[in-house]
Amino acid sequence: MLTYHVAVMLEERVGQQRVGSSSTEGVERETKWEIFLQITSGEITQADAARKWMVDVSTVIGIRRTVKDAALAALAAKPGRPAKERDWALEAARSEIAQLTEAIKAQAIELAVVRGKAGWG
């Protein structure tokens, strides 16, 4: 999920920027992500990445900056729904309902046994 989110933000931010004479408009999301991963892992330098994908070094720097910003924003976002306030009264009522249900079951069994014995006499 983080990878997709980062790639989308990267596409939006870097895709709109024009740095120097080159742009990342022709570079796919997956390629931008690959550039970022290779540079971050140390497999390739920024200059080598720029030559390999035929973009300006400033474009590579922009990709790194944008991915970092997008990743930090994605990590800062809290996943899921916001926590709801616990309703203690509702929980107490449900607990009481469960206890009363068990009591009624026990009384129904007792009544069935008493009725059954009365029919034998």
Short description:
The chain is mostly helical.
The fraction of residues in strands falls at under 5%
Helix/strand/pairing category: mainly alpha
Q: Based on CA inertia axes, which overall geometry fits?
A: rod-shaped
Strand order of the main beta sheet, please? 1-2
Number of extended strands: 2
General description of the model:
The structure is a single chain. This protein has 121 residues and is mainly α. The protein is 71% helix and 3% strand. It has helices at 2-16, 29-41, 46-52, 57-76, 88-118; strands at 18-19, 22-23. Strands 1-2 form a two-stranded antiparallel ribbon. Helix 1 (2-16) crosses helix 2, helix 1 (2-16) packs across helix 4 (57-76) and helix 3 packs across helix 4 (57-76). The longest helix is centred in the C-terminal third of the chain and has 31 residues, at 88-118. The protein is rod-shaped and about 95 Å long.
List the keywords.
2 strands; mainly alpha; two-stranded antiparallel ribbon
Strands, helices and their partners?
Layout: H1 2-16, E1 18-19, E2 22-23, H2 29-41, H3 46-52, H4 57-76, H5 88-118
Antiparallel strand pairs: 1-2
Helix pairs in contact: 1-2, 1-4, 2-4, 3-4
